[in-house]
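Entry:
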Amino acid sequence: MKYLYIAILAGFLAGSTCLATEYRFTFHVPDNGKMSVLKYRTEAKNRYDALQKAGLFCGDFFGIGTRNLSDTQIDDIIDACANPSID
């Protein structure tokens, strides 16, 4: 009986890692007068979590909080990072 519980637990844990789905996003961000394209791929259990990861990655990539950006540049980056196209 003890081995049955271990087998069920092992199956559950293995199944829970298989629930992640791959998501791909493309961001089109205006950067210094030209359009920059950023592609991002992640695995997540749902689209909301994937979009959250992708948005944070996009903001970090384009330097939100680390570069001296104008308010307009920050608004453009936030807008682009919040609205990716989903591949």
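The mean pLDDT is 80.
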